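Review box. Two proteins, two foldings.
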Amino acid sequence: MANKQLELLVKVQLEREEKLQANFVQALQFTRQAEQKYQGLADYRTDYIQQSQQQGSLGLQSRQYNQFVSFIAKLDLALQQQAQQIQQAQAVMEQRRQQWLAMQKKRKALEYLLEQQKQQAMKKAARTEQLLQDEVAMQQFVRRQQPH
């Protein structure tokens, strides 16, 4: 494969890699947002329970107690759903990370191949130049050896 073709292929791979990296970053941000939302819900649940206990020490009617229990159950359900969303987001994030790393590996392999081809071309050029210099030196030597 010619160097120009390999260089173009490396460029295309790099563009793909950058897109996959952006997808990974987006998934990472979504996961963090989901985790923050979960933590916010968990903190709210804790605060709500503490406030309700303080009010309960003054006495709760059965209707207030039932509302408290019902609301806590709704918060627990919301926390379970948010935990599932976090798990899904983490799975997507990991999948995108793996895709990005795989593309990075392909690009690096192509860059290595390109570098090897460049080095081989330089060695070939150096050998050719050396042969030309040797030929010129040989011709000069032969001319000096000939009687005038």
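Next protein.
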Amino acid sequence: MTASTLLRDLGALLLMVAWVIAAHVGSNGWGNADFNAAVAVLPIAVAVLMALWRLSHWAVRGAGVLALGALLAWLWPQLRHNVALLYYIQHLGIHIALGVLFGKSLLGPGDALITRMARRIFGTELSERKLRYTRGATLAWTVFFFANALVSTGLFIWAPPAIWSIHANVLTGPLIGLMFLGEHLVRLRVLPPHERPGLADIRRAYQRESARRSTAPPPP
């Protein structure tokens, strides 16, 4: 691992920690309401701006940016008093989107999502054993994302804000880490060494996929 890669990973880790702290503070109503609302709105605004950027006509992009700014200005008094709701919408939306992404790949005759990732890593035909494992792993992640979204919703409705915030903002990362660990342990048990990718293989496959997506032309 090069020094630049190490620094980049460290920076990403520090940013994630800062985001967890900001989300927990904002969800509990501590600190400045405007700052908390701005931090909570930022990911949503960035996602909308990225979608607008992919539009072909500059006038449409400009109109979209103006409409987003006007909408935020109009809703700001409500947003600054409902920061926890903003974080809940983010948490719920991300989990549902990932659950749909994984689950949709299980439908129809094509490969499951993790099966497709395995094909990119190995670049060869997969054994029946690995096909079963990757499909089962895709199903497990689908259940995890939808289950965590359901738990988050229940806690947001019925539990105190601090309890929901601990689950959604503090524990979601460790829970995902436990899922990766559980999947790794199952993989060690059911797959022979030559069918198990290493961390370097997974990282290279992710980098290739990210590069492919970044160079792909936007849809017409």
